[in-house]
């Protein structure tokens, strides 16, 4: 999240449009292949898929690090890296999320939500460590950092090998060839998601998060951060500033995830989820105002507080209200909504930033998110979701 935009903008000196296209390539393969990844997660071994995907990541980060160290990195090569990582993620994420429900103690709805909160907390904490390390780019160097990522993925592969999950629910085998079975299963997952009064609006909100939040986070906000530094500034200072800025977001996300773990059950999950998304829209609009860099970091911290709640509760609701036999596919649909809007947002905001500047451009995704939240609030039953402490549903 720090080194990729740094390589494109600072090392390769690409303009706003090519920067947006690069960010799109990082997300596009996941968008195109995520439903296939969900099908494979439901039909195959989630643990085996995670091990294979992480093993490929070792080689990918190793190759990118060697290209940077040898000064052979080009725009075409970094696009190839982005497409490769995106394709791996399309299979890794549904398998990893399906695996979580198979290792959660108890396996019921409350246990799964608690496991999602713990996993989110671990992820946010690890991202914060990464951001802190990225601030040391002027000392360590970007190439060695990328080589270090391959070592971290090796550790993750060993962790996945050590997992002993419960067996998943048996799936009925459809007749016909592989493509027909895949189309049937993916269609079944879409029907299951659309039929759920809880999952359907969450998927709509996740899609809005992709368009509004991911595009802003990966394109507009890095451009805004870069605008604080003169062209003659030491380039690695920009990497440190990007790391510090991102650190504020993930610190807020970790704190909110920690609070969710600490206080446990959230009875009005729908209301809390929608309010957290609305807070993010308001923060984006506030970022249009030129403020001192510490104040911008403070806004990003506030956004992170809401983002941690939204990411944890959204994924937890999908885990909780999907059936075991469709969970991988439904989670892939949720991820498709979350990731699918990212490429469109990245390219759109790249062109907008080129035309009117990143500060004015960021008003659009903030206002759009507020409009989506308002629509889901009034047109769906999500705000009336009222879970009793035992995990059941009650009318508001």
Structural commentary:
By secondary structure, the protein is an all-alpha fold. It has a single domain, classed as Up-down Bundle (Growth Hormone, Chain: A). 79% of the residues lie in helices and 1% in strands. It is built from 15 helices and 2 strands. The protein has helices spanning 3-11, 16-43, 46-69, 75-103, 109-134, 137-140, 142-161, 178-195, 199-226, 235-263, 269-286, 293-321, 327-356, 358-361, 363-379; strands spanning 386-387, 393-394. A two-stranded antiparallel sheet has the order 1-2. Helix 2 (16-43) runs antiparallel to helix 9 (199-226), helix 9 runs antiparallel to helix 15 and helix 11 (269-286) packs antiparallel against helix 12. The two termini are 41 Å apart.
